[in-house]
Design a protein that fits this description.
The complex is a heterodimer of chains A (331) and B (312).
Chain A (H helix, E strand, L loop, with lengths): L3 E10 L2 E11 L4 E5 L6 H9 L6 E6 L2 E2 L5 H4 L1 E4 L11 H6 L11 H15 L14 H13 L5 E5 L7 H18 L3 E4 L3 H7 L2 E6 L2 E6 L1 H6 L4 H6 L6 E4 L12 E4 L4 E4 L2 E10 L4 E7 L2 E6 L11 E6 L3 E3 L5 E2 L1
Parallel strand pairs in A: 3-8, 3-9, 6-7, 7-8
Antiparallel strand pairs in A: 1-2, 1-4, 4-5, 9-10, 11-12, 12-18, 13-17, 14-15, 14-17, 15-16, 18-19
Helix pairs in contact in A: 4-5
Chain B lengths: L9 H28 L4 H4 L13 H7 E5 L2 H6 L6 H8 L2 E6 L2 H32 L5 H10 L9 H11 L5 H25 L3 H9 L4 H12 L1 H17 L2 H6 L7 H10 L5 H28 L9
Antiparallel strand pairs in B: 1-2
Helix pairs in contact in B: 1-15, 3-15, 6-9, 6-12, 6-14, 7-9, 9-12, 10-11, 12-15, 14-15
Classes of the chains: A alpha+beta (331), B mainly alpha (312).
The structure holds adenosine-5'-triphosphate (ATP) and magnesium ion.
Chain lengths: 331, 312
């Protein structure tokens, strides 16, 4: 395991800038989650670190050594591809053994057996070991491709939406498992996801990419509580942060251009009258869709009151986030 | 009974099967006739009406592999008893075996040249196709078009320049010369066919192998080649069929040491009258290698390319 440092990393495809001048430090043993809309450059960033893509400018260093001219094999990184690519002519077992048999690792047979058994247990693919890679469901393929990374002990694990096609329960289990690998074994991970919960529960650091730029990097709480911009604020938190004009409420008028209200920033009772438009029961939470002077507002149902559609209720912001005309947060 | 809408019904299968069997039977008749003629005696082979049922004989094969001289009946009587079945067959025609014919040698030439040029075409073709498929090569499209353009006229159109060139270079009537020539003709087909197959293999496999600690060549060898097996097998069969059957260049450029079977087989007719069983025997043996080769590679041809382990 090792620290990975990106400095001034840039990559364009034709005139499309995929990654622009990224500086990022991934500490040894940290779990960094990359967030960002589709096309933001998350996958490209992972590919630059792994050496599958050559940077136009900037450097990648692993363990304090600049690796720009190293082949992927020399960088000793493990990667779970967004398009999980298993070797179709091999069985699951051979797929898992493939990295261990590489000329670089040349693992002894017995050790390979043990590793495979161990990883198959964790990923629950023990009974699939002798299947051909093509004879698996999407979720099984995804687990095997995670397994192909986990059998190794690389400088860094690069994972591109590794849990995206698993069912909720398996996803929750594997989340814990990946977190354990990082916490107990001191593994370093760079992890791409669109999933809120994965980001908040697993990350030690969150990086938010936007149009190829790293717009914020910090602890999950930091990014959640002090987002740099409206865009970043929208990346974390469910239901999503509500963005409203600041002059909607007397208390916030003049303090910014727009305000951001997360559910915990809303107090019911006095304040602006809001109309309850819709109520969604999600099981663990009840979402209330409100309308204030033509603006939509989504929040959680207050604990001690149950609302019904068509009802009017007073809404008041407490400690909201303030943003200026450009969408940047005001301190 | 329920069935998938993509599966053929029994009725459709029966009709399709019948048609295929019918077509196969029609095309098999000449082959069967050649095969049968090879086991006839010369009089049986030209009897009219043609014989369907006959006493099988190995005379055709014996005549194919030997040269014989006629001897007088008195001389024949003085000879010691025949040592094997071949001598016996020959003596029934009042002849003795003078020595082996050239057929074995010519056949071996065909094997060396056919398989040698097939191997070389596939070897070079796969590497070139991989390079064209994966790397950005300057003027790649023009190069590919140029490679294809070598097949735009029949190869024999350049026979005279090649004949002169080969004479200058000392490649006439040599195995190397014929291997190079057939490779040159086949390589364009090989590059184009194989490029198509390799293009279909997702790059992600190699990228995964690179990450898994392999060099690009190892990734090519361990991941791309097994995936390209179908393409390689079918391309190899095409290359072999061309090199194996080629007649015009073989007649023009070979006469002795490197002569292949196709120009040799017709010459059998000239030796000692119209010996149809020997010609048929030669043709039968000549058909075998390509057939065996195709059957051996059948597994790869039928397996199809395995897609589907990459999420698109
Ligand atoms: N090989 C390529 N050739 C051309 N453009 C590319 C290539 N790879 C990526 N891009 C472009 O670079 C940008 C960033 O792509 P990237 O795959 O890194 O996005 P991403 O953040 O991973 O998105 P997603 O969440 O959809 O996976 C996109 O606009 C994409 O179209
Ligand atoms: Mg991506």
């Amino acid at each position: 395991m090792a620290e990975v440092v990106l400095s001034g990393l840039s990559k364009s495809f034709g005139n499309k800038i995929a990654v622009a001048d990224i500086d990022m430090r991934i500490d040894d043993g940290s779990f960094v989650v990359l967030l960002g809309p589709t096309g933001a450059g998350k996958t490209t960033t992972l590919r630059l670190i792994s050496g599958l893509e050559k940077a136009d400018a900037g450097t990648v260093s692993i363990k304090g050594r600049i690796v720009d001219h190293d082949t992927p094999a020399m960088r000793d990184v493990a990667m779970v591809f967004q398009q999980y690519s298993l070797y179709p002519h091999l069985t699951v077992r051979d797929n898992l053994a493939f990295p261990l048999r590489s000329p670089i690792l040349k693992t002894p047979k017995k050790e390979i057996e043990e590793k495979i058994a161990q990883v198959a247990e964790v990923l629950r693919i023990k009974d699939k070991l002798d299947n051909r890679a093509t004879e698996l469901s999407g979720g099984e393929m995804q687990r095997v491709s995670i397994g192909r990374a986990l059998v190794r002990d690389p400088t860094i694990y690069l994972m591109d939406e590794p849990l995206s096609s698993l069912d909720a329960r398996l996803r929750a289990d594997l989340r814990i498992e990946l977190k354990r690998i990082q916490a107990d074994l001191g593994a370093t991970l760079l992890y791409v996801t669109h999933d809120q919960i994965e980001a908040m529960t697993m990350a030690t650091h969150v990086g938010v990419l936007q149009d190829g730029r790293l717009v914020q990097f910090g602890s999950p709480r930091d990014v959640y509580e002090r987002p740099n911009s409206i865009d970043v604020a929208g990346r974390l938190g469910l239901p999503r942060i509500n963005i409203l004009p600041a002059d909607l409420f007397p208390a916030t008028r003049g303090k910014g251009h727009r305000i951001g209200l997360r559910p915990e920033h809303i107090r019911f009772g006095d304040g602006q009258p809001a109309l309850v438009k819709r109520i969604e029961h999600l099981g663990d939470q009840i979402r209330v869709h409100l309308e204030i002077e033509g603006h939509a507002l989504v929040c959680l149902q207050p604990r001690l009151r149950s609302l019904s559609v068509g009802e009017r209720i007073g809404v008041q912001p407490i400690d909201p986030l303030f943003f200026d005309e450009n969408g940047n947060r005001r301190a | 009974m329920s069935h998938s809408i993509t599966d053929a019904t029994l009725r459709q299968k029966t009709i399709a099967g019948t048609l295929v069997i019918l077509y196969a039977s029609i095309t098999m008749v000449p082959l069967l006739w050649i095969f049968m003629t090879g086991f006839k005696t010369p009089p049986d082979s030209i009897s009219y009406p043609p014989k369907i049922v006959y006493q099988p004989s190995l005379e055709g094969y014996v005549n194919l592999f030997t040269t014989r001289t006629r001897v007088s009946p008195e001389k024949l009587a003085e000879l010691p008893p025949p040592k094997n079945f071949a001598e016996e067959i020959v003596r029934n025609r009042e002849m003795v075996i003078a020595g082996p014919s050239k057929f074995g040698e010519r056949f071996l030439n065909s094997i060396i040249i056919g398989f040698g040029s097939t191997f070389l075409s596939i070897f070079l073709g796969t590497l070139a196709a991989y390079a064209f498929s994966r790397f950005s090569i300057p003027l790649a499209d023009d190069l590919l078009f140029f490679i294809l353009s070598t097949r735009m006229m029949p190869p024999i159109a350049v026979a005279i320049p090649i004949f002169l060139m080969y004479r200058q270079l000392g490649l006439s009537d040599t195995h190397l010369g014929m291997i190079l020539l057939y490779t040159a003709v086949n390589i364009s087909l090989a590059v184009w066919l194989l490029k198509g197959f390799i293009d279909e293999i997702p790059r992600e496999y190699e990228e995964a192998a690179l990450i898994d600690g392999y060099t690009r060549f190892q990734a090519f060898y361990k991941v791309v080649l097994p995936q390209a097996a179908t393409g390689i097998a079918s391309t190899a069969i095409f290359c072999l069929i061309f090199a194996w059957n080629e007649y015009a260049f073989a007649v023009l450029l070979t006469s002795g040491t490197a002569q292949t079977a196709p120009p040799f087989i017709p010459t059998i007719i000239g030796v000692g009258g119209l010996d149809w069983p020997a010609v048929a025997a030669g043709a039968t043996l000549f058909l075998l290698p390509v057939m065996i080769f195709t059957v051996m590679l059948r597994k790869h041809l039928l397996r199809g390319i395995t897609f589907g382990a990459v999420r698109k």
